Amino acid sequence: MDLVPALEEPLKQPLKSVLGPATAKVMAEHLGLHTVGDLLHHYPRRYEERGQLTHLADLPMDEHVTVVAQVADARLHTFASARAPRGKGQRLEVTITDGSGRLQLVFFGNGVHKPHKELLPGTRAMFAGKVSLFNRRLQLAHPAYELLRGDSEETVESWAGALIPLYPATAKLESWKIGKAVQTVLPTAREALDPLPPSLREGRGLLPLPEALLKIHRPHSKADIADARARLKWDEAFVLQVALARRRHADAQLPAVPRTPRPDGLVTAFDDRLPFTLTEGQQKVSREIFDDIATDHPMHRLLQGEVGSGKTLVALRAMLAVVDAGGQAAMLAPTEVLAQQHHRSITEMMGELASWGLWRDAPPQKGGGGRRDGGTEHATKVVLLTGSMGAAARRQALLDLVTGEAGIVIGTHALIEDKVQFHDLGLVVVDEQHRFGVEQRDALRGKGRQPPHLLVMTATPIPRTVAMTVFGDLETSVLDQLPAGRSPIASHVVPAADKPHFLTRAWERVREEVANGHQAYVVCPRIGDDIDEAADPKKAGGKKSPEDEAEKRPPLAVLDVADQLAGGPLHGLKVEVLHGRMHPDDKDAVMRRFAAGETDVLVATTVIEVGVNVPNATAMVIMDADRFGVSQLHQLRGRVGRGSAPGLCLLVTEMPEASAARQRLNAVASTLDGFELSRIDLEQRREGDVLGQAQSGVRSSLRVLAVIEDEEVIAEAREEATAVVTADPELRDLPGLRTALDALLDEEREQYLEKG
């Protein structure tokens, strides 16, 4: 992060190489390490103590591992094969032990000679390879190894009591080779420029950076490791929070039009017609938003909340407030189904306030939205804009936007196109932020005369520290209360392979719900036609777990399951399908029939995951539930129990009881707390790159900081960063911190923060 010229020296360059060219090439291609500084920040994953043996019993299948163990036995066998028909084939079998387990190493052909001489019983060494299973026994085939010799005084001294760093490695480059490379460049660490202000470092008793780098790579004790990691965690947290604090500071300098609703305007008229009272949480968050949009710099706020907590209602009140103040509001939805759903639900909530009355006046009077003719006194036009609209409807919608006749527009990415122009865009609401690229958000925000206010909504609960890192440039509001009248949702795992009668009972429960006048969803991972393979994340080139390998069968598909149900356990019920590749008009027609109660069971993909609101739907059966993430399952489950009748969610899986997949499903079934589930989800997936690089395959910028475990560090770093940036926005007095930011914020990440 904090590179100076010595640390910026390439590991590989034409005329000279810090390392051997082959090693430097592998580091660049497989580990993303290009400079001396990159290598110094490639920290050990863990440490082995001399004399402490790895537990061989815990080795993971199909993963590259490094173990420290002792040779118990070595035997050379000869055999006949196609290449050696006269029985001259050779196989060396070496058994190693760590006292808790045994592991077999296998070498073949010409590869047997060196290990046959070196791997004698009693020899201790580090071994690296991929764990496989042969004849029901774990083995490493042709592992790389390094002997731990104790026969010379110098070697004994270098290894005695030493902690051996084990680095994140690849099949092409073993841990100890990385360790040797690190030792080669380690003297350069003394030239590392420290990014932490001296007062912060000394006030918190943190090591100087050069000392931390030396101790993380060459520790003399466990205390050295703890001190180094504590310091390096602060680097990562602080530099990132400074980047975000600078973004917030820059946003605060931008001009924006203050939007203050009239006391007797649209918002008041809307509240008066609501058949219920806002929850305390909705009132509090609305006040926060109204205070923000009344200022002369743009609001940048994240609104997160549980499924069904009423985020759309809060967002609508914010949009009405902006329209009240003479501006326009745009809601950006990730799919046409969701845009249509929002348009339908918003016009229903507004009733006569969403009349087709047009703006007739010249610029509105200060502090108000002007008079509107047609419809009611307080009304505004609400238009829908999607890519699949007919030419005439699209032309009218575009006209309504540019003239200002439409106060509210709801649309998909079609809103971002160049030809879409607004009269006076005052607020942008982005639904399900993680589904939009920052370029798309930026393009929409650029359509205002001055930067519009921004409200980002997500129904995926985010732990506080993740919100401070991923959305650190946004102020955060949380809705954690469910509105009155929302019913509890019972969730159960249905182990279809272990107990097939449970699945039979699941379909009986669906029939019972329909018999009681309700409806049900059945969710599948795939659509089910030939070009649908990409819908299966397990087939998209991702790593397969042992359970995936064992299962073999493709994930269940909407089209197949719908046919089987209609002709089998749900025979006689009205079953329809919904998936992402249907024509938008067809999708809308299916959703309208389901919302009207004309369809009993909707078999769908995750197209129903967000925004779909059918209060009469009380049951959901999720097929192959193990194919979905924890947060996604929670989102899906939130589609039921939206009315007065209790909800039921059944998670169907064929995964064995002891599998990690079943543990995930059990966690989902055990709690309705989305924030708790988001912690579980994050702990299982790890953080990825908090600067949005996860999709591009770039390594995470977090190496020692864990956003769940290091909550206190992140919170304190945010406070320190805000204070530093407030005092010195350009960081003129902190050259080390500026250098660290330059290294963290390459061009792509800089754009992420600029647009985020």
Write a structural description.
It is a single chain. The protein is an alpha/beta fold. Helix content is 37%, strand content 18%. The chain is built from 26 helices and 23 strands. A seven-stranded parallel β-sheet has the order 13-14-10-15-16-9-17, with helices on both faces. Helix 11 (280-293) packs parallel to helix 12 (311-324) and helix 16 runs parallel beside helix 24. The longest helix is centred in the N-terminal third of the chain and has 32 residues, at 222-253. The two termini are 21 Å apart. Mean pLDDT is 80; it is low at 152-160, 356-375, 531-550 and 688-700.
Task: Provide a quick synopsis of the model.
The protein is α/β, with parallel strands linked by helices.
Feature tags:
756 residues; 7-stranded parallel β-sheet; globular; alpha/beta
Structure summary, number of beta strands: 23
Q: Main beta sheet, described? A: 7 strands, parallel
- The structural class is alpha/beta
Query: What is the mean pLDDT?
Result: 80
Terminal CA distance: 21 Å
As a percent range, the share of helical residues equals 25-40%
Radius of gyration: 31 Å
Low-pLDDT parts are 152-160, 356-375, 531-550, 688-700
Q: In percent terms, what proportion of residues is strand?
A: 15-25%
Total helical elements: 26
- Principal-axes geometry comes out as globular
Largest sheet, spatial ordering of strands: 13-14-10-15-16-9-17
